[in-house]
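Late entry, written up from scratch paper. The run itself happened at the end of the previous shift, but nothing got recorded in the book at the time, so transcribing now.
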Amino acid sequence: MTWESRYLPPNHTIWLGHADAPMNACFHQHIQLINLLKQKIKKSSENAFALIGFKCDEGTQRDLGRSGSMEGPLAIRHRLAHLPIQKPTLCCYDVGDIICNDHDLEESQQALSEIVSILLKENIVTIVIGGGHELAFGHYQGIATCYPPEKKLGIINFDAHFDLHSLHPHHRAGATTAFYQIAEAHFTEKRHFDYNCIGIQHAGNIRQLFDIAKHYHVKYILADDIHQGLREKSFDFIDRIIDENDIIYLSLSLDVFSAAHAPGVNSIQPLGLNPWDVIPLIRQAASSGKVVGYDIVEHVPRYDIDHRTAKLAAILIYEIIHHHNDQKMIFA
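Output as recorded:
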């Protein structure tokens, strides 16, 4: 096991709030803190979630991006703490963070994989908070460990970028290679590969990446399509993923959003999406009950304005938790 040396237990001071709030009204009153070095997490029957931070800048630094995404998990938790709870019966843990402070990204990804695997084996849905998008490879590895190749895994990535940059002798793994690494792992293990992107921008991906996406049969919706009002196409896109897969991994890069809504990201997007382009699709996927792991990545708090990006990320977690496995949701 490698995760113990890269593990930080949860910090209770994050989950402080107004003392006069009614009982079980807000997340700060409801979150259960679990130190995995000392406590064994209980097996869940359904609808239990665990927040895991991935405090890492290494992937974005290798890609020459903005530093500071390792501060994201703390900032997002602070904003989540004050949001209300609409389902007082839900079970939500904070199990702490995986850190990378020695530039060994690969070991930190492996540590994250082990934590994810521990949680999934107890039937707990993982919500990993980044950190850069390099965490996706670690998150995927944890999922792949728990589910046999016969289980069809659908991947949904809300992102302006494919993150399909290949590895070569002068390009180490980083934030932009995560889904290339996942694709290669799928083919090595002869797994069903179904990678789907929403919010892709022509201005955010070189031409060769569209060729690589075609090679791996990646399906995607352009940001242009959504801006032009193709709402029904988006719902049909999610429906197909739900229908054709046994389990789903949903990843969301905050740089899919317009800079007006998410200024504190690694790669700012003037022509990104509106949150209301994305939230109904997250609700649709979450309500299927097939999503086993979520992550939210690429928040860089030092570039945020009025905590705008952190608040948006916290609201997305709120949406995930409140709509997961909600069979009453109807989409049209």
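The chain has eleven helices and ten strands.
(Scratch paper discarded after transcription.)
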